[in-house]
């Protein structure tokens, strides 16, 4: 009797994409919206959304910025494919926010909130560790932190805090 050993790698060592995915990457890097891409390719918007989500999964990323930067690193597209329109839509706004923001004065509780949120601690545990009374107290504290960082949500505030080397 033979022993069979199968090797199942957790992640492929090299990414392989098909030609249509490469074309989609180039269209995304050109700064077009999903609707504009659908119009150019003659496909439905939901079809394009699904294909972009599959690319996110394949490249193990969360945003279009990450997708394009990883695609450039893996040499699926070049820097020449990234248009000014893409930089203007996705990169400039983030960097403009970074330039505007100076290190805000944070209380100890707000700093602790940022550190704990960065560690993905559950809301129930956050409330307990911060000594808050309720979920609404937590949301109010998050709102104040977002106001100080001029961010839309707490995750963006955490990213800015990391860039400013606060946490």
Biggest beta-sheet profile? none
**Which band does the percent of strand residues land in?**
under 5%
- Mean pLDDT metric: 83
What is the global morphology?
Answer: elongated
CATH topology of the largest domain: Arc Repressor Mutant, subunit A
| Overall number of strands | 0
Under the CATH scheme, which architecture of the largest domain would be assigned? Orthogonal Bundle
Order of helices and strands: HHHHHHHHH
CATH C-level name of the largest domain = Mainly Alpha
Q: CATH superfamily assignment of the largest domain?
A: Winged helix-like DNA-binding domain superfamily/Winged helix DNA-binding domain
Low-pLDDT segments: none
The helicity comes to 55-70%
What structural class do helix, strand and pairing data support? mainly alpha
Number of domains: 2
Gap from first CA to last CA: 58 Å
Please give a structural write-up:
The longest helix has 17 residues, at 84-100. This protein is an all-alpha fold and 167 residues long. The radius of gyration is 21 Å and the shape is elongated. It has helices spanning 19-29, 34-41, 45-59, 64-73, 84-100, 108-118, 123-130, 135-149, 154-163. 63% of the residues lie in helices and 0% in strands. It has two domains: 19-98, Arc Repressor Mutant, subunit A; 108-163, Winged helix-like DNA-binding domain superfamily/Winged helix DNA-binding domain (Arc Repressor Mutant, subunit A).
């Amino acid at each position: 009797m033979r022993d069979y050993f199968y090797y199942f790698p957790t992640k492929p060592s090299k990414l392989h994409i098909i030609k249509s995915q490469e074309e989609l990457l180039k269209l995304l890097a050109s700064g077009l919206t999903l609707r504009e891409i659908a119009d150019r390719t003659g496909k439905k918007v939901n079809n394009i959304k699904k294909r972009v989500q599959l690319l996110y999964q394949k490249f193990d990323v969360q945003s279009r910025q990450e997708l394009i930067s990883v695609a450039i690193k893996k040499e699926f597209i070049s820097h020449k494919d990234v248009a000014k329109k893409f930089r203007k839509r996705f990169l400039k706004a983030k960097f403009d926010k970074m330039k505007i923001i100076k290190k805000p004065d944070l209380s100890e509780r707000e700093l602790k909130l940022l550190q704990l949120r960065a560690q993905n601690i559950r809301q129930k545990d956050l409330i307990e560790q911060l000594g808050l009374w309720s979920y609404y107290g937590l949301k109010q504290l998050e709102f104040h932190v977002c106001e100080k960082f001029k961010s839309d949500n707490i995750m963006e505030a955490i990213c800015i805090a990391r860039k400013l080397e606060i946490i």
